[in-house]
Amino acid sequence: KTYEPIKQYPHFITFFFLSFSWKVQHLSEKLLYLELLKKREDSLEKQKVELNNQKSTLLKNFVYAKRKMTEEEEQFTREVTEFNNEYGLTSNRDLLIKNKVKTEINDLEKEAALLKSEMESMEHKNVQLNALQLQKNELKQDLFALQSKLQELEKVFREAKEITKDLEAEKVQVTEKPQTDPECLRLKKELENCKDDHWENVCETFQTEIEILQM
């Protein structure tokens, strides 16, 4: 019974090292994936900055185009009015103005639609970036949990080494006991003196006591 823990413990050590190796490999894979996500996040951040810059430029262009259109429309209206007044073509003035305004409105609507499409595209990329950030946070939590588990495994490993050391010392002590224990030596000597049949029962008793001490 004394040797049973010693025989069984190597299986526990083997299982422990296999589990520990798997945890370390899993942690390494998580760290690698987290690093890839970090690079991907940096790339998307750069794209986001570029998109924001493009958005700002487009908005400026839109405002400028709208203001320019208004100025041109006002200039055109003045020129048409002056021309009609000069040549007596007042009857055609309203039609010319309407056609000019209609053309300008169509151009402006096309430009606004293009700007809206580009802004929706940027919003979609921002959604992807937010999803990636959420996934990164989840992986960080998994990493912290694995690091905590790794610390626990290291603690168990240290305790296992101490237990193994104590068991080895106990094994040596138990093995050497029959050769060093005074009581064992005394019983062995008395047992050797039991030669005749009259002392047979006494010898058997001594033999039993020696076996008990050797356990």
From TrEMBL:
Subcellular location: Cytoplasm
InterPro entries in the record: CCDC172 (IPR029618)
Similarity section: Belongs to the CCDC172 family.
Positions in coiled-coil regions: 34-177
Classification of source organism: Eukaryota, Metazoa, Chordata, Craniata, Vertebrata
Keywords: Coiled coil, Cytoplasm
Major location (coarse): cytoplasm
Keyword Coiled coil attached: yes
GO cellular component: cytoplasm
Protein name: Coiled-coil domain-containing protein 172
